[in-house]
Write a structure and sequence with these properties.
With 470 residues, the chain is mostly helical. It has helices spanning 22-37, 56-69, 84-96, 107-119, 187-197, 210-223, 253-258, 263-272, 285-291, 306-319, 322-333, 343-356, 363-370, 383-388, 391-405, 411-424, 429-441, 449-456, 458-469, and strands at residues 9-12, 41-46, 78-79, 100-103, 145-148, 155-160, 164-169, 177-179, 202-206, 229-233, 236-237, 302-303. It has five domains: 9-75 and 190-233, HUPs (Rossmann fold, 3-Layer(aba) Sandwich), CATH 3.40.50; 84-188, Glutamyl-tRNA Synthetase, Domain 3 (Glutamyl-tRNA Synthetase, domain 3, Alpha-Beta Complex); 246-318, Glutamyl-trna Synthetase, Domain 2 (Glutamyl-tRNA Synthetase, domain 2, Orthogonal Bundle); 320-374; 383-469, Orthogonal Bundle (Arc Repressor Mutant, subunit A), CATH 1.10.10.350. The protein binds one RNA strand of 76 nucleotides through helix 4, strand 7, helix 5, helix 6 and strand 12.
Length: 470
RNA sequence: GUCCCGUUCGUCUAGUGGCCUAGGACACCAGCCUUUCACGUUGGUAACACGGGUUCGAACCCCGUACGGGACGCCA
């Protein structure tokens, strides 16, 4: 970390529209990682200036999502709506210094202006009709908006940390409204004032904001403020390449939580979408902070790949702490009917967790795979398990049951007993294990039969075997 | 329509002029391991959007074309 880098401040600035989008989550992650990488600060600003769509509940969803992902913020959350007075003050300051002017156009007038421009094959832009007009000509009874008097010649240049040098001719841009006729600020203006006041040094956001940046730069210049550095990261698209939306499956981070994904897996996946460090695929939080740099962010949009996320989730489940996974499973099982979820079931699940987590890719799968441990006799049988329990198998189960009744209930002893039984009766181990698995779990799939039997315990295991042998 | 951005296996990506007969990961296929399912492991299929140029040499530099995305609001 270099000297003076502690001054670096990033922010995540979502508008509270009811969910924390997976794309927004990645933007937040990149801001967080960059701030941590350079020892700076990561701030949150809720852009709730659209009072119609903004609710406390929506803000809560964002906070909950960020917390779940472990993206901790520094300093107090800033609510943009609370800063309206300050935004207006700056707008009037620009007015007084001649950098802005009042515009008395009505919404209807502007709409017609745009329509006509499009009809004539021009860009739908404001024509600047009040830019140099005498305010004395203002129509009575109309409240004016305030527009920035943007430069009309030359070009505006953004040195973007991801996209490189991006420039646009000033003639391409019109004079944007910074303060509405009702005195409230527009988004573009509020963002600039807030970023300046919050001391933001690096603006990392989706590249859908790239063209907005030119206009924001014009405001920074009009106020004579230092500009932050900009980094516009590519968007995430759905599997079909179109903008990510509900029809692509889960897009809200809290939805991923429900579907059984671990936050560290989601973060790792999101990190690798648009960022890379050689062939590195599995990167935990600490390593991500150590390695993350904006210079390594790609320019092209990427697509959401649920299969890869799922694979990564399996890796993180295998790495996860057994107690933590047991808690997660118990929580999910609590919503399932016909289970006996006491301390006995909890102990069984915890005992088998090292084996269970080897074969689950999501917490939903993990909970389903563990559910048999909390069931009561008679077990519900899957059709394939039912098919295992032939008349011959039932006879075999009776014999295995008595053999097991005489062994210690350790994994090693059970394994030895079963192998001995198979050998003595001239069977392959699989011929013994599968009927047992059906009898004990009601399924044809489970962890190793020895560990499964041990986790159930002598009494329960023998009860299930004799129930199935009947 | 105008402006801005992008384009390497199906997907995420490595690659910054010779190390590339293009590497890794996921997915897919086949084999091994095995007590089912996973895990693990071995191998396989599969890409530089297209066309020009610059150069002894181009995935990499330049120019076009195509395709994709984004922005053009008194939304954010």
């Amino acid at each position: 970390m270099t000297q003076g880098s502690t001054a670096i401040r990033t922010r995540f600035a979502p508008s509270p529209t009811g969910l924390l989008h997976i794309g927004g989550a990645r933007t937040a992650l990149f801001n967080y990682l960059y701030s941590r990488h350079v020892g700076g600060a990561f701030l949150l600003r809720v852009e709730d200036t659209d009072r119609e769509r903004s609710t406390d509940a929506a803000t809560q969803v964002i906070l909950e999502g960020l917390d779940w992902l472990g993206l901790t913020r520094d300093e107090q959350t800033v609510f943009q709506s609370s800063r309206a007075d300050r935004h207006a003050v700056v707008a009037y300051q620009l007015l007084e210094t001649g950098k802005a002017y009042r515009c008395w156009c009505s919404a209807e007038e502007l709409r017609q202006m745009r329509e006509q421009a499009v009809a004539e094959g021009r860009s739908p832009r404001y024509d600047g009709r009040w830019r140099d007009r005498d305010p004395a000509e203002a129509p009575a009874g109309v409240k004016p908006s305030i527009r920035l008097k943007a430069p009309q010649e030359g070009e505006t240049v953004v040195e973007d940390m991801v996209q490189g040098t991006v420039r646009v001719a000033n003639a391409e841009m019109d004079d944007m409204i910074i303060l509405r006729s009702d005195g409230t600020p527009t988004y573009l203006h509020a963002v600039v004032v807030d970023d300046h006041d919050m001391g933001i040094t690096h603006v990392i956001r989706g590249d859908d904001h790239l063209t907005n940046t030119f206009r924001q730069v014009q405001i920074f210049q009009a106020m004579g403020w230092d500009q932050p550095r900009f980094a516009h990261i590519p968007l995430i698209h759905g599997a079909d390449g179109a903008k990510l939306s509900k029809r692509h499956g889960a897009v809200s981070v809290l939805e991923f939580r429900e579907q059984g994904f671990l936050p560290e897996a989601v973060c790792n996946y999101l990190l690798r979408l648009g960022w890379s460090h050689g062939d590195l695929e599995v990167v935990d939080r600490d390593e991500a902070i150590r390695l993350f740099d904006i210079a390594d962010v790609n320019r092209g949009a990427s697509r959401m790949d649920y299969a890869k996320l799922t694979n990564l989730n399996g890796i993180y489940i295998r790495k996860a702490d057994d107690d933590r996974l047991t808690r997660e499973v118990l929580q999910r099982l609590a919503h399932q009917p016909h289970l006996s979820l006491g301390s006995i079931a909890a102990a069984r699940i915890r005992a088998l967790m090292p084996q269970l987590k080897e074969r689950a890719k999501t917490l939903v799968e993990l909970a389903n795979a563990a559910a048999f441990l909390a069931r009561v006799v008679p077990l519900p049988m899957e059709p394939k398990a039912e098919a295992q329990l032939t008349a011959e198998a039932k006879l075999l189960l009776r014999d295995v049951g008595s053999a097991l009744g005489e062994t210690d209930f350790t994994v090693a002893a059970i394994d030895a007993a079963l192998r001995g039984f198979a050998e003595a009766t001239g069977r392959k181990l699989g011929q013994v294990a599968q009927p047992l698995r059906a009898a004990l779990t009601g399924s044809t799939v489970s962890p190793g039969i020895d560990a499964t039997i041990a986790a159930l315990g002598r009494e329960e295991a023998l009860a299930r075997i004799s129930a199935a042998a009947r």
